[in-house]
Design brief:
With 668 residues, the chain is α+β, with helices and mostly antiparallel strands. The protein has a four-stranded antiparallel sheet with strand order 4-3-2-34, with no helix packed on it. It contains 14 helices and 34 strands. The longest helix has 40 residues, at 172-211.
Length: 668
C-alpha cells in the first residue's frame, strides 16, 4: 500500500504515536472542557504559557518547566479570581489571558535574538517528536487518567450541579482546582510537541464531535480519543502527500470531523425511525482499525526498498535539535580539529599540510591547500522542509583529498555541491556520493562561479557581466535580463540567491522553473574599493553583511531591498544573525563591537576578545547562528562563544591545543 509509505519513516511513526498519546490526554481533559463550557479558559491557558517559555529561553532554562510555571500561575490566578462575585468568571480569565500574552510578547519584542520560534510555539512540530517526548506524554497520560478516575464523581457533580456537589461533601472548590490542574497538565505536556493551536484543537473538536454520538461521560472520552486518533492518522497522511504543515493539518482534520459529526447528526435526526438511533460502534472501532495500518507501515515490506527520505543516510541518528560543529584548522601546522558545540567534545582529525583556508556547504568542510582540497564530513546537517526541520548527526569522517586549486566558496543543494575555485571556475561534486564516502565529480563549470538553486545552476560569468541559468549538467537554460557587471561574491538566502555586482546586488529567484532577477543598487557615490565582494550571514538569513573598505560595513537587507552603511571604520571581521539582531564587528585592536544594523548606533560596549591583529596575520572570523556567535582567538588558542543579545557576554570558551586560524560551522 504505497499511500501508507509515510509510516515506514521513523520520525512519522513517532509523530503518529505522539499524536495518539496527545489524543488520549486531550480526550480526558477536553471532555470536561466541552461539558463545562471551559473552551475560553483552555485557550487562555494555552496562550498564557508564552511568558514562561520566553523567560526560560532567555535564561537558557528548560522550556517545558517555564511553560509549567507560567500555566500554573495562570491556573492559580483563574482559581482566585473565580471566587469573587463582583464580575463573571470569564472577565477574570480574559484579563489574565491578555495580561499573560502581552507580557510574553513584550519579552519577545525586547529580545531580538529570542531563541524560541513563535511559529513553533503556535503550531508545534509534530514531526520532530523524539523518543523522550513520547515517554513524557505516556507519563502525563497516566497521571491524567489517575486524576480523572479519582476525581470523577466530584467532576460530574461540579459539571451539572455545584450546589449538590457541596451538599454531598465533594468539595467543589477543590474539584475545580483539580480540574484546572488536569487541563494544565494536558496543555503543558503537549504544547512543545504539537503547539498551542493543535492542543486547543484536540481539546475541543474530538469531545465536541463525540457528544453528537454518545452521552455517557466515559463513552465520550473513548469516542473523543478515537476521533483524535483518526484526525492524527489522517492529518499526517494528508500532510505528507499534500506537502502541508503536519500540525495544522491534524488540527484542521479534527475540526472537519466535528462538522462531519454535526452534519451527520442533523441528517440522523431527520431520518431517525421510532425504533431507536444508530449505535456509534463505527466511531469506536476506528482506533482498532488503525492498528493493522500502523503495522502495515512499520512491518516488513515485500516490495523493493525505497531511498530513505528527508535527508536521512545510513548510520545517521536523527536528533531533536540542531547539532552544530566547528571545523577548525591551524594553518601553521596543518592540525585539524572538530568542536562539537552540543557536547563540547573536541575531535582530532590529524593534519592537513599546507591548508590556508576552510569553506563549508552546511555539512562538508573543504580544506584548501595549493595542490588539492581535503574533504571532511563533519557529521552534522539540517534538512529544512519549510514547515518542519530534521536534524541529523553521524561520526566525523575524513573523505580524503580532491585534486585542484584552493576553494573560495562552497554551495550545495540536495543533489550537488559546487566548489568555486580562486581561479573562477567551479567543480561539481555528487552529494549522494559524498554521503557514501566517495568524491565523485559530476562536471566542471570553467567560465564562472556556480551556485546550485531550484534544481539548476546559477553561474556568474565575469566575461559576459551576467548571470546564466544552466542545468545541473552545465547545459544552457536561460540568461537573466539584468546585467551584473564584474560579479564577485554570492550568498544563498530564503529569499533567493544574492550576487555581488559592481553596481549593487542582484537577487535571483525562481518560481515554477522560471528565473528572474531584481537589482538592489548601491547608494550614489560608491567607489569600486567600497563595493561588497564577499557576504557574511547566518545560514538562510536574508540580512547580509560585507566589508565596505574605508566606509566600514555594508548591511544588505534583501527583504527591504536596501543597503545600509555602518560607519565603523576599517574592520577585521563582521557578521549578523539577521533581521532584528545586532551587527557584530571586530576591529584590528581585538575589540568586538555591537551595532544596531538599521541605525548604525553602537548598542553594546566593545569587549576585548582577541589580541590586536597584526598586518599579514590571518584575520579572525565571526560565525553566527540564531542564538550565539563564535569568534576564533589565535593568540589564546581558543574559540569564544558569545551571547550577542546579552551585551556580548562570553557564554563559553573552548580551549584548543592548536592555533585556530580558520574555521567554519556545519550542522545548520
Amino acid at each position: 500500500m504505497e499511500w501508507l509509505a509515510p509510516f515506514e519513516v521513523s520520525f512519522v511513526q513517532r509523530a503518529l504515536w505522539g499524536g495518539l498519546l496527545v489524543s488520549c490526554l486531550c480526550a480526558l481533559a477536553g471532555t470536561w472542557v466541552v461539558l463545562r463550557g471551559m473552551a475560553f479558559l483552555s485557550d487562555a491557558m494555552a496562550h498564557g504559557m508564552l511568558p514562561g517559555v520566553a523567560i526560560a529561553a532567555l535564561v537558557g532554562g528548560n522550556l517545558l518547566l517555564g511553560a509549567a510555571f507560567s500555566a500554573a500561575a495562570m491556573a492559580v490566578g483563574v482559581s482566585v479570581l473565580g471566587r469573587g462575585t463582583r464580575f463573571a468568571a470569564d472577565t477574570g480569565i480574559g484579563l489574565l489571558f491578555v495580561g499573560m500574552l502581552s507580557a510574553g510578547v513584550i519579552i519577545v519584542s525586547r529580545s531580538p535574538s529570542f531563541a524560541v520560534d513563535l511559529t513553533g510555539f503556535l503550531f508545534g512540530d509534530v514531526l520532530a517528536v523524539g523518543e523522550r517526548d513520547l515517554w513524557y506524554l505516556v507519563a502525563a497520560t497516566v497521571l491524567a487518567a489517575v486524576i480523572s478516575v479519582l476525581g470523577y464523581r466530584a467532576f460530574v457533580a461540579l459539571t451539572f450541579d455545584p450546589r449538590k456537589a457541596h451538599t454531598l461533601g465533594l468539595r467543589p472548590r477543590l474539584a475545580n482546582v483539580a480540574l484546572i490542574a488536569l487541563l494544565t497538565l494536558a496543555i503543558v505536556a503537549s504544547f512543545h510537541i504539537v503547539g498551542t493551536l493543535l492542543v486547543f484543537g484536540l481539546l475541543i473538536a474530538p469531545p465536541a464531535a463525540a457528544v453528537y454520538w454518545v452521552h455517557r461521560i466515559p463513552a465520550i472520552m473513548l469516542a473523543a480519543a478515537a476521533l483524535g486518533a483518526v484526525a492524527t492518522f489522517a492529518g499526517l497522511l494528508i500532510s505528507w502527500h499534500a506537502h502541508t504543515a503536519a500540525g495544522a493539518t491534524i488540527a484542521a482534520t479534527a475540526v472537519a470531523l466535528f462538522f462531519v459529526s454535526a452534519l451527520s447528526s442533523w441528517v440522523r435526526d431527520r431520518i431517525r425511525s421510532s425504533r431507536g438511533t444508530p449505535r456509534p460502534l463505527a466511531v469506536l472501532l476506528v482506533l482498532a482499525m488503525m492498528t493493522p495500518l500502523i503495522g502495515c507501515g512499520t512491518g516488513d515490506s515485500t516490495g523493493p526498498p525505497e531511498t530513505p527520505p528527508h535527508g536521512y543516510v545510513a548510520g545517521a541518528q536523527e536528533a531533536d535539535e540542531a547539532q552544530p560543529r566547528l571545523v577548525v584548522v591551524d594553518s601553521g601546522t596543518g592540525a585539524v580539529r572538530v568542536v562539537d558545540l552540543v557536547t563540547a567534545d573536541v575531535i582530532d582529525l590529524g593534519r592537513a599540510e599546507g591548508v590556508g583556508r576552510v569553506t563549508a556547504d552546511g555539512r562538508y568542510a573543504f580544506l584548501s591547500a595549493r595542490d588539492g582540497v581535503r574533504i571532511v564530513d563533519a557529521g552534522a546537517w539540517t534538512v529544512d522542509h519549510g514547515d518542519h526541520v530534521h536534524y541529523y548527526r553521524a561520526p566525523v569522517r575524513d573523505l580524503g583529498a580532491l585534486a585542484g586549486g584552493p576553494v573560495s566558496a562552497a554551495y550545495a543543494d540536495s543533489a550537488v555541491t559546487a566548489l568555486v575555485s580562486d581561479a573562477g571556475g567551479t567543480a561539481l561534486l555528487d552529494r549522494s556520493a559524498l554521503g557514501a564516502g566517495s568524491r565523485h565529480e559530476r562536471g566542471v563549470i570553467a567560465d564562472g562561479a556556480a551556485v546550485p538553486y531550484a534544481e539548476h545552476l546559477l553561474v556568474a560569468v565575469p566575461a559576459r557581466d551576467r548571470i546564466e541559468v544552466r542545468a545541473r549538467d552545465g547545459a544552457p537554460a536561460s540568461v537573466l535580463a539584468q546585467e551584473c557587471p564584474r560579479p564577485h561574491g554570492s550568498a544563498v538566502t530564503r529569499r533567493g540567491v544574492v550576487f555581488g555586482c559592481a553596481d549593487g546586488a542582484l537577487v535571483v529567484t525562481a518560481r515554477n522553473a522560471v528565473f528572474s532577477g531584481e537589482k538592489i543598487p548601491y547608494p550614489h557615490g560608491i567607489s569600486d574599493g567600497d563595493r561588497a565582494t564577499a557576504f557574511f550571514h547566518r545560514a538562510g538569513s536574508a540580512t547580509l553583511v560585507a566589508k565596505a573598505g574605508s566606509r566600514g560595513v555594508w548591511v544588505l537587507d534583501v527583504r527591504r531591498k536596501s543597503w545600509t552603511a555602518a560607519d565603523t571604520g576599517p574592520v577585521v571581521a563582521a557578521n549578523t544573525a539577521g533581521e532584528g539582531a545586532p551587527l557584530l564587528v571586530l576591529t584590528a585592536d581585538g575589540l568586538l563591537h555591537s551595532y544596531d544594523a538599521l541605525s548604525g548606533r553602537e548598542t553594546a560596549a566593545a569587549r576585548p576578545f582577541t589580541a590586536p591583529v597584526l598586518d599579514g596575520a590571518p584575520a579572525p572570523l565571526i560565525l553566527v547562528d540564531e542564538h550565539r556567535a563564535y569568534l576564533n582567538d589565535p593568540a589564546a588558542r581558543a574559540i569564544h562563544e558569545i551571547d550577542y543579545a546579552d551585551n556580548l557576554r562570553a557564554a563559553r570558551t573552548f580551549g584548543l591545543d592548536i592555533v585556530p586560524t580558520a574555521m567554519v560551522e556545519t550542522g545548520r
